[in-house]
Queue: 3 jobs
Job 1
Amino acid sequence: MTTEELIGLRRSQPWREELRSTLKNKERMMRPRAVMPELDPVYRSTTINEEVNQGLSLEAARAEATRCLDCPQPTCMGGCPVGIHIPTFIKQIEVGEILDAATTLRETSSLPAVCGRVCPQEKQCESRCIYTKMNKPAVAIGFLERFAADYEREQGALKVPEMLPHNGVKVAVIGSGPAGLSFAGDMAKLGYDVTVFEALHEIGGVLKYGIPEFRLPNRIVDSEINLLEEMGVKFETNTIVGRTITYDDLHAAGYRGLFVGSGAGLPNFMNIPGENLVGVMSSNEYLTRVNLMHASQSDSDTPVFKGKHVAVVGGGNTAMDSVRTAKRLGAERAMIVYRRSEEEMPARLEEVKHAKEEGVEFLTLHNPIEYMGNDRGRVTAMRLQKMELGEPDASGRRRPVAITGAIEEIPVDEVIVSIGVSPNPLIPRTIAGLEVTSKGTIVVNEVNQTALPDVFAGGDIVRGGATVILAMGDGRKAAAAMHEYLSPTS
């Protein structure tokens, strides 16, 4: 059965037809979009482990679900990289069948509680909602996804999804980030013997080291990982594929397929004077130390410096995570320094809103050109070139152009550089035969298969830096393709 046929079959069920008749579309469209309850900005900017968004109540979630028009051709699904049956799970919430809604989510998503928190729904599923064509707020699909997944967990009702019989075929996964976990979940459902190899001491990849707990609590990630373990997925930590174990070792151990989801962990820098000063670091280092190594705690063996005047260079979600973390660690002045205008920022609107509420300053149309330090080699100031917007560049955004002579200097004692990342080169260097782009990303075909037919790849190692949900979409696509490749009937 095709996806379109399944959508039609589900929509034509008697309970769905009856539900559509209970409330006219005009009445549904008049209802306001749900508002996410949040912690008070003054309070939350002092606590690093409490989640800002508090989640919808059952009443609020069911009310929001009534806004969905249950379209015969749900364009919202076209914006979801993992193909969640969005109208189905929302209508299940509307009638109060929340656990059924969670089951629907898990048909295609291994991490619904994660995606409901960190995915840019406003640029994906919600951007395709029919309400946007009427200049009305989209149905809060992300809020509802989070609600159903949280309800399932809080009710102690997490359960192993339907799985095919175990087939005894071993497959390996490199990296336990969103791409690897999504791939592992789908392969486990298909009956494979799946082992995930993680270089760090904790499972979760960027979900653990890159995203602060005030946005994505570790307990949420751990819950999803525990369910994968119940599905039979095995995890090996402190294992560096290419060093601890090789591609040939995996073959010798009987693994017939390999998925590479090793991410993009190499930070980019601007190569300007003063970048080697003490106090200038990448957002990767900063967030990993705080999130994964607990370096903000007083008893940490490797404590992180807690700057009082902190500048974060960049305008993406990672930059927002970094500056909001700095604020929570006691920064008196926490600043975003971004060379374009706020309209060009790639960060989610919600992240920008939260940062502003928490007292973060935005120095847009400013670009660092030099960091200065004291006689001990510690950063003390930064020189900023003021910019203006010119013609659009290849990205479609207006190109920032320096304003001649417009340079200012501001005091800083910590600078966090968040201008993008590059792929980890270890796997491409140690697995002969992989094709690699000039940017270091692995070349894959339309189903995420590499030049080596038994090796598939996805996520940042292919994309060079993208969202959690796009990485998960890669994992799902690769799992379906690997299953076809390994199937005796293929």
Job 2
Amino acid sequence: MYLYPLLVVIAASSYGVVSTIIKLAMRSGFSVSEAVTSQFFIGFCLAAGIFLLSNRRKFSFNGIKILIIAGVLTGLTNIVYGHSLNYLPASLAVVLLFQFTWIGMLISCITKRQFPSRIESLSLIILVAGTIPAAGLIDVDLSQIPFQGWLWGLAAALCYSLFLFANGRANASMTTSNRLVWVSFFAFMTTAVFQSPEIIWNGTLFNGGLWLYGLALGLFGMIIPVFLFTIAVPKVGLGTSSILSAIELPIAVMVSVILLSETVTALQIVGIVTIILGMGLPVLLSRNGLTINMKSLKTKKLPAVLKDLKKHSS
């Protein structure tokens, strides 16, 4: 009941580390474009290595269409979010990206043709209420923010929500490592078109030390989240996955405090606690125990579920 939601939380938490790693790369003299390109190139290389080492089946093309969409959306989320930073302060950009919580719930309601439960609705209200103080947005002047900045920020949230939706629709007959290769490949190709692919052949990536940041970004921004989302989102459901993914913002704040020595105010702490409370409501209060396929879980004990995860990773 709690294992698959935990995988969603771990996946979203790994995304929360990415912004801090990019800032560390910038301190070392690299641009955001170079860091993002290294993330998806090394992420694809890691995914290919995992497939070759762990998969004994032939490379599958079954269900590739939805994986192309998932990969493109992964790359577009980073591209559009980076573009929003040209118009928005970082705190506001984070808040707009965070709107994937209710956008994901909306997509889930449309596809399922049903309204969210009372617990999910209450959870979303609490999440939105905690976002503004957690991001330190209370003292930001919004009067000078250009209109296109709002559009780019919300577009990033939409891309991220659609990525979660596409990931949850991936073909179950294809192994997780096979899906990971496809998603990472098309994410890299999308990024290469708009970012800095020249770092691969001009020596910046390997001779300049960028590969260290690319390795960390590839793990936390591609391999771990895509792998775990692919396993868990179909079990948990898009709506609840969007709520649980709210952990990304608190993790981003905490990691920036630890690694970048950034200060956090008491108001931000209150916002973080509010977000954690909001994302925990569906788990703690739902009488149905989340939107998991309970029929399959009733016939499986924990060892059987772990065996299921092992099957996905092989």
Job 3
Amino acid sequence: MPRTSAAGAAATAALPASFEQAMEELEQLVARMEAGELPLEASVAAYKRGSELVKFCAAQLEKVDSQVKLLEGDMLKPFQATDAGNEDD
């Protein structure tokens, strides 16, 4: 019977309920991986979970971007960095 680790269970956990929860979990995973706290198998599981969280966050951002574009319609204009500093008037 295979042994189940906490990191392995995290890798198969359901997606978070919100963008903020996903980012928080991702930050915790990255911190643990950077600290070298995880053995190799757990690191691979954490990487897999992190990849799932990144995809979830990207999808959430894309959904919000689509909603903003729909709400704003033709009012959206490309951002021009040179306009941001020209408030000398």
